[in-house]
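A protein record pairs a chain with a discrete description of its three-dimensional fold. The following entry can be read in just this way:
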Amino acid sequence: MTFETIFWIVAAILSAVAVFAVLWALMRKAPDEDGSLTQELSREALAEQLRVLDEERAAGLVTDSIYESSVTDVQRRALEELAIDEKHVKRTPPLGKTFAVGLAVVVAGSAFALYKGLGSPSLINFVSEPPKQGIMQADGTLGSTEGLYDEASLGAYLKDNGKDERAWVLYARLKVHKQAWKEAADAYKKAVDLNGFVAKDANVLVEYAAALISQETKETYIQSLAVLDQALAIDSKLLSARELYAISSLELGYWTQARESIEYLLSQMSMDDPVYERLAQTGAYAAEQERLEAQGKKLEQKP
């Protein structure tokens, strides 16, 4: 079952629940309708009793003491009815309509949360199979995304849906496949700047850094280090981030950072790995340059 199907099933269920709740709240009979009618009839009966007592007293059918006792009893019952009325007025009104309005708000909020969580359901149509996490292969080369996405459709979609971070990532991967590094980096940046799920995905941040490094300029090397810092803050053990960090640091002459990154990579590798010796030599070169740089600074400080 696709995300799109799940989205519409959940949306349909929530809508049905909301409609039912609203109709139930608006169409049900108010609980106090029958009670009000009964109280009105009781008051009329008490008034009739007082009228009958007055007629009987005038006709001499009851004594004054019996009359006064009967009137007192009728007045007592009238006061009791009045007290009941006051309690009825002060009673909290039924929560049916309030519940319906609240549920409508919850439904709207849930729909928005689903949209934010799953992205636009219409975007699913652009994907012929689930996208793979990341584009870096085990040997450090870029994997192919050919045939997975339609660049023209994604481009048109993004014109009206510029806040869909997933679409920007898919678009960036297409540009990577074409080695359009600047356009790819720009697309990754737009996805990350939305500060959603992508900004918290270390693997996507590594892809972004790779697109920057591939432009081979001092500015993009520096930018890549900032992006890789974000990735390593999320996952400090991510080897692909450490490797790219070493590459940018070497290109910029940041020997200490390069050496530290290479040493970490070596600590995670077996000495039998064919890459180990070459990486160790690079680490030794970075360490030597770091030493020479430190000596040069000392000489500059001497009078």
The radius of gyration is 39 Å. The chain has two domains: 3-116, 128-252. The mean pLDDT is 77.
